[in-house]
Amino acid sequence: MTYKLFPSLLLAASSLLAYSHRSLADAASDDKENEVKSILQRMETDVLAFRDEMERVYSARCETKTLTECAENNFSDCSSTFPSQQCAKADELVFSACGDGETCNALWDKTLSTVSIPAALAQGPSNNPNDNEVIESACYSRLAEQYMIDKYKTDEEYWAK
Question: Over 50: is that where the pLDDT of 1 sits?
């Protein structure tokens, strides 16, 4: 009798073990699914917030302050004047139009954001753009810089996980 009971217990135990394993796998799957949902929700929230910021920035594009701060800007990596500019080293950055790869290769300021304009659009004096839409876009897009810096700082830990 004990002999017949053992296979039944073994079968019941293996069924229970298989069920437990499936339950754990389902729970792990549910956890992963919830994690993915959480990430997608965060991304959607971030995209909508960025959209709102860009709408704010776009609406401020013609404000006197925006235009005044941008009026003296220059968009050339070869001839712009930046507050903390340095000549880029050959192992950092080389713009063949600016240097020979050994001496000063570009004027670079790592303390601020810049807008780089392709040479085809920089046909004005001092290699500046002369198309009003390009100038306007470069000027008002700068208004989003602080938002992006702040957003990066607040999200850095979350996305590093």
Answer: no
Helix intervals (H) in the chain: 2-59, 64-71, 132-141, 145-160
pTM, full prediction: 0.57
Residue 108 burial (10 A CB sphere; 0-12, 13-18, 19+): buried
Q: Provide mean pLDDT across the span 20-37.
A: 71
Minimal CA–CA distance to 135: which of 122, 148, 146? 122
C-alpha closest to that of 77 among 108, 120, 113, 46: 108
CA 133 → CA 21, 92, 127, 140, distances in Å?
62, 31, 16, 11
Read off the pLDDT of residues 37-69 as tens digits, 9 standing for 90 and up: 998 999 999 999 999 999 999 898 888 887 777
- Can you tell me the distance from the alpha carbon of 117 to that of 74, in angstroms, rounded to the nearest whole number? 10
- Give 118-161 pLDDT, tens digit per residue: 778 878 877 778 888 888 888 888 888 889 889 988 998 888 87
Q: Please say whether the beta carbons of 97 and 48 come within 8 A.
A: no
- Rg for the chain, CA atoms, rounded: 29
